[in-house]
Amino acid sequence: MNRRTLLQRAGTAAVLPSLASTVTRLVRGSGQGSPLAGGDPRSGDPSSTTTLASGTEHATPVYVNDAEADGPTALVVGGMHGDERPGYLAAERLRSRVPAAGTLVVLPRANRVAIERGTRAGEGGDLNRQFPAGSSPETGLADEIWDLVERRDPDVVVDLHRSLGIYGRHHASVGQAVFPADVGEAPTVAADVVDVLNDDAVPWYMPLHEFERGRSLSGDRPMLVHKVAGDLERPGYLVETTQFLVDTSTQAEWLALAATALLERHGVELAPDDGASTTGGPA
């Protein structure tokens, strides 16, 4: 897949990062990118919108997009950590995308309280540490999210995040990595998508920012994708970009590209973006 095709499918305006503002202007003025493609699969309003944790302070929208043709179901989650803007902005970008077949479910702002506060954790602590495999989620919000997973019964789950540094280079940082569930072909799919991102998205002048395939997730930590792997034995992916020398818009761009490519490899091919804003709501 070449750069033009990947960017079309992710709905990008080809906004690339730079190491200095001058390079940013040169890249954005270079004419890279492409017009949005039309035709099926289509983009538009979600087929339906429901509310997770309705009637509570955690109430947040869930967008469901059904294709006319039967096919697999995918769940995309953003905003587990409220200070990780690229994650929920990327998920917002995907919320109106209708697959060629099957169903796309998007929970863009999973931790709405933390997002409004601009903090990693919300009520009850770190939301992505409340999903122990083999037992019930540890807070009400985590339980609501897991109930959504069980009701929608997804064939694949993608959880979008942002890190501070670069995986393998900065201590305790996991940016620019795709962590697959240790299920089936998920590790191979992750490696394939990493290659696509590095070939078609990360600029040549940012070799330190090339994506890597992270370790496989098997259920040994209380995180959403770990629980998907351990309890459901379904493919799942935790995708991390980095804020190190990369602006928020570009991080969101890369996350949307990664999610689009991962879903496509599980039979959920998404429509090009219709140009909807990713910046609405509290930030």
From TrEMBL:
<dbReference type="Pfam" id="PF24827">
    <property type="entry name" value="AstE_AspA_cat"/>
</dbReference>
<keyword id="KW-0378">Hydrolase</keyword>
<keyword id="KW-0479">Metal-binding</keyword>
<feature type="region of interest" description="Disordered">
    <location>
        <begin position="28"/>
        <end position="56"/>
    </location>
</feature>
<feature type="domain" description="Succinylglutamate desuccinylase/Aspartoacylase catalytic">
    <location>
        <begin position="70"/>
        <end position="172"/>
    </location>
</feature>
<dbReference type="InterPro" id="IPR055438">
    <property type="entry name" value="AstE_AspA_cat"/>
</dbReference>
<protein>
    <submittedName>
        <fullName>Succinylglutamate desuccinylase/aspartoacylase family protein</fullName>
    </submittedName>
</protein>
<keyword id="KW-0862">Zinc</keyword>
<dbReference type="GO" id="GO:0016788">
    <property type="term" value="F:hydrolase activity, acting on ester bonds"/>
</dbReference>
<dbReference type="GO" id="GO:0046872">
    <property type="term" value="F:metal ion binding"/>
</dbReference>
<feature type="compositionally biased region" description="Polar residues">
    <location>
        <begin position="45"/>
        <end position="54"/>
    </location>
</feature>
